[in-house]
Write a structure and sequence with these properties.
The chain is mostly helical. It folds into two domains: about 70 residues, Arc Repressor Mutant, subunit A; about 140 residues, GntR ligand-binding domain-like (Four Helix Bundle (Hemerythrin (Met), subunit A)). The chain has nine helices and three strands, in the order αβααββαααααα. The N terminus is likely disordered.
Length: about 230
């Protein structure tokens, strides 16, 4: 699973902030809070039974992860991206994630490999888009989990977070047969990971991300009005 990279103050306030961030992170990644949704501190505090202080800190945590954006005198919202934004984010991912994988590869353990096999097995039996997207994220983040650079891993996670909604919108209109392509690409990546073959891993992963970018950005209707 993706590690929680929560900052913030120590003590009970810090625990509450991280707990609130966990709840909101899950809601954003699951599509319950869509791009453009304003996250009002008073409303969140009332809904979550907390004061404004841990809510404010939770929103800062999520902003550092690319899941919220803040505006002076207006508050925070789930970020809205244009087609051009998503295109650039994916081009960045094509370059950054192969490096993250290469750094992680020699440090992955037998437990990581077992987790990857289990996750991919569930992906292949999955028909629910929401569940598929969470599993897909888990698969890739597990391949990156042993990366020794916190900075590199945080940047990778941030790019994933920022494009999650648009990936979901695309998957909801995509041909069901596309799942076979995704699974084949995952199996190639998993094979490279098992063999600790950084060159193959980079090549398979780059192609996997590039194909998604091309398919996703071929649907400008997903970004209408953004």
């Amino acid at each position: 699973m993706t590690p929680v990279r929560a900052g913030g103050p120590g003590g009970s306030e810090g625990v509450r902030s991280r707990h609130i961030a966990d709840i909101l992170r899950e809601e954003i990644l699951a599509g319950e809070l869509i791009p453009g949704t304003w996250l009002r501190q008073d409303e969140l505090a009332a809904r979550l039974g907390a004061s404004r202080i841990p809510v404010r800190e939770a929103l800062r945590i999520l902003e550092s992860e690319g899941l919220t954006e803040s505006f002076p005198n207006r508050g925070s919202r789930v970020p809205v991206l244009s087609l051009e934004d998503v295109y650039i984010h994916y081009r960045m991912r094509e370059r950054l994630e192969p490096l993250t994988l290469t750094e992680s590869l020699p440090r992955l353990t037998a437990d990581h490999l077992a987790d990857l096999e289990r996750i991919q097995g569930e992906i292949e039996s999955q028909r629910d888009v929401k569940r598929f997207l969470l599993l897909d994220r888990d698969f890739h983040m597990t391949t990156y989990a042993a990366c020794p650079s916190d900075h590199l891993l945080a940047m990778t996670e941030r790019l994933w977070n920022s494009t999650q909604h648009y990936r979901r919108a695309f998957m909801e209109l995509a041909d069901p047969g596309r799942a076979a392509v995704v699974n084949a690409e995952h199996r190639l990546i998993l094979d490279a990971v098992r063999r600790r073959d950084a060159e193959d891993g980079e090549r398979y992963l780059t192609g996997h991300i590039r194909r998604t970018r091309v398919e996703l950005t071929a649907h400008p209707e997903l970004f209408a009005g953004r």
